[in-house]
Amino acid sequence: MSASLTQALEEPRQKVRIAWLELTCLPCGEVAGYIEDGRVVRPVYPGGIRLEQGRPRCGRCNALLFGGERGVATSRESIG
Ligand SMILES: [Zn+2]
């Protein structure tokens, strides 16, 4: 086992910081998903977000999604 790997295992994931932005669909009145770190699109249900010409759209009604709440999470589980 190399020294760097040992260090990685012993060091907890405290440096993980995920900037997230909530994407809300106004017609549906629901949160469609989140954008993590400004590039990872993560819908709350499969197919909930479609990207069309770089813009996020609702997978149900095809409306443009609006950015809602935002924040910084220290783990993927604590987003939202
Ligand atoms: Zn919608």
Overview of this protein structure:
By secondary structure, the protein is mainly beta. Helices cover 10% and strands 44% of the residues. It has one helix at 3-10; strands spanning 18-25, 30-36, 40-43, 49-52, 55-58, 66-73. Bound molecules: zinc ion. Zinc ion binds at residues 25, 27-28, 58, 60-61, 63.
Provide the residue-averaged pLDDT: 87
User: Helical percent range?
Assistant: 10-25%
Placed side by side, the strands forming the largest sheet appear as: 3-2-1-6
Q: Summarize the main sheet.
A: 4 strands, antiparallel
Q: Uncertain segments of ≥5 residues (pLDDT<50)? A: none
Radius of gyration from the alpha-carbon trace, in angstroms: 16 Å
Bound ligands, named by name, code or SMILES = zinc ion
Report the β-strand fraction as a percent range. 35-45%
List keywords for this structure.
mainly beta; 1 helix; binds zinc ion
Can you give me a brief rundown of this structure?
With 80 residues, this protein is mainly beta.
SSE blueprint:
Blueprint: H1 3-10, E1 18-25, E2 30-36, E3 40-43, E4 49-52, E5 55-58, E6 66-73
Antiparallel strand pairs: 1-2, 1-6, 2-3, 4-5
Bound molecules: zinc ion.
